[in-house]
């Protein structure tokens, strides 16, 4: 069932309307729980500090907002300053495995950055500091996980669906109300190239209505290459005019397909699996059958990096497989008078955290 068409009002039939009503009632109960939880943390109860600075990268909604490229950007920035960085995350969807798809992707992109996964972020941070001797912790998906004190709270908002259809879970995709941005230090708008300037201005106005002084940095998810398993990079130009099938198990498959189309690819067919799907042998065999059924109509299968680290293959159904590699790029408002305002806002905050590391080393 396409739950997004129910949440966003795309389906107008009586059953969909009834489902929206039931989901709205459930979201009221969820709202009460979120309010009580935040009230407890706002008072400082049960918040534990780490021995090193902590930066949280989170979001307001479920699904893919583009946090992984942001985490990579931050890790590389601090590594360039000679700071030993560690990543901690919950490890959602890993099951009995040692790491989930996000961790496997980060391992591949940041081989010199340790990653600890544990639902208890405080315990994960302690391992990173005490056993792995990191000097700074990046907490992936940490905005709602408030038990671990953070020195900087960054919130990633996807410009293609910024506020989860305007409703809390399960009626919409919001994990908590937009008003929670009052505790954020900076917002990174992702996928800004996918919407027009008027839409971006509206999003920024909604954010400023909540927190008028909150810095907002625009960014784009820029494709840089194709990656064939295990580590062979292919020029992005190979996508131009290429007839492809798309496979993905991410929170926002539409945005991924839009990126491929802008890269010049012709999408013949697509298969969107549930977010964090483990790609069981049965699922992979189903994909092989599906790809074979298309015969010579496609010349390549394209997936995300998170999919490739689980598929661990260079072909499916006899067709080459490649992942699209995406990097974060900061961008400017069209009316900005400064060439470095976006990067400057973020770098100033990161610099303040980096100085804390230097002070701790000198003590």
UniProtKB/TrEMBL annotation:
- What terms describe the molecular function in GO for this protein? ATP binding; lipid-A 4'-kinase activity
Q: Pfam families this protein is in?
A: LpxK
User: What InterPro entries does the record tag this protein with?
Assistant: LpxK (IPR003758), P-loop_NTPase (IPR027417)
Indicate yes or no for the key word Lipid metabolism.
yes
Q: Which reaction does it catalyse?
A: a lipid A disaccharide + ATP = a lipid IVA + ADP + H(+)
According to its UniProt record, in which pathway does this protein act? Glycolipid biosynthesis; lipid IV(A) biosynthesis; lipid IV(A) from (3R)-3-hydroxytetradecanoyl-[acyl-carrier-protein] and UDP-N-acetyl-alpha-D-glucosamine: step 6/6
- Per UniProt, where does ATP bind? 61-68
SUPFAM superfamilies in the record, alphabetically? P-loop containing nucleoside triphosphate hydrolases
- Which family is it part of? Belongs to the LpxK family.
Which HAMAP family does the protein's record reference?
A: LpxK
Q: What does this protein do?
A: Transfers the gamma-phosphate of ATP to the 4'-position of a tetraacyldisaccharide 1-phosphate intermediate (termed DS-1-P) to form tetraacyldisaccharide 1,4'-bis-phosphate (lipid IVA).
* Identification of the protein by name: Tetraacyldisaccharide 4'-kinase
Q: Which organism is it from?
A: Rhodopirellula maiorica SM1
**Phylogenetic classification of the source organism:** Bacteria, Pseudomonadati, Planctomycetota, Planctomycetia, Pirellulales
Q: What is this protein's gene name? A: lpxK
């Amino acid at each position: 069932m396409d739950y997004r068409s129910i949440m966003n009002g795309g389906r107008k039939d009586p059953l969909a309307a009834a489902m929206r009503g039931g989901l709205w009632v459930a979201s009221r109960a969820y709202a009460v729980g979120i309010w009580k939880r935040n009230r407890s943390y706002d008072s400082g109860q049960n918040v534990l500090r780490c021995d090193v600075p902590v930066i949280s990268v989170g979001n307001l909604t479920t699904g893919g907002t583009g946090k992984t490229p942001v985490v990579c950007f931050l890790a590389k920035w601090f590594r360039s300053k000679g700071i030993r960085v560690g990543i901690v995350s919950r490890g959602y969807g890993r099951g009995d495995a040692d790491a989930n798809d996000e961790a496997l992707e980060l391992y591949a992109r940041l081989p010199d950055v340790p990653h600890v996964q544990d639902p208890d972020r405080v315990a994960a941070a302690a391992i990173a500091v005490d056993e792995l001797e990191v000097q700074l912790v990046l907490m992936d998906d940490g905005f709602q996980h408030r038990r671990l004190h953070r020195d900087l709270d960054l919130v990633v908002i996807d410009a293609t669906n910024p506020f989860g259809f305007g409703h809390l879970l399960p009626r919409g995709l919001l994990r908590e109300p937009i008003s929670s941005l009052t505790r954020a230090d900076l917002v990174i708008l992702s996928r800004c190239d996918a919407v027009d300037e008027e839409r971006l201005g509206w999003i920024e106005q909604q954010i400023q209505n909540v927190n008028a002084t909150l810095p907002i940095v625009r960014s784009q998810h820029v494709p840089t290459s194709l990656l064939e398993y295990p580590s062979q990079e292919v020029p992005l130009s190979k996508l131009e005019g290429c007839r492809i099938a798309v496979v993905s198990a991410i929170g926002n498959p539409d945005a991924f397909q839009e990126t491929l189309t802008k890269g010049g690819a012709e999408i013949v067919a697509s298969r969107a699996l549930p977010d964090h799907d483990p790609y069981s042998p049965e699922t992979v065999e189903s994909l092989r059958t599906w790809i074979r059924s298309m015969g010579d109509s496609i010349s390549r299968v394209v997936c995300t990096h998170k999919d490739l680290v689980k598929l661990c293959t260079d072909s499916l159904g006899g067709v080459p497989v490649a992942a699209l590699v995406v990097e974060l790029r900061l961008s400017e408002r069209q009316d900005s008078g400064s060439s470095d305002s976006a990067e400057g806002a973020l770098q100033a905050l990161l610099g303040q955290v980096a100085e804390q590391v230097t002070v701790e080393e000198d003590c």
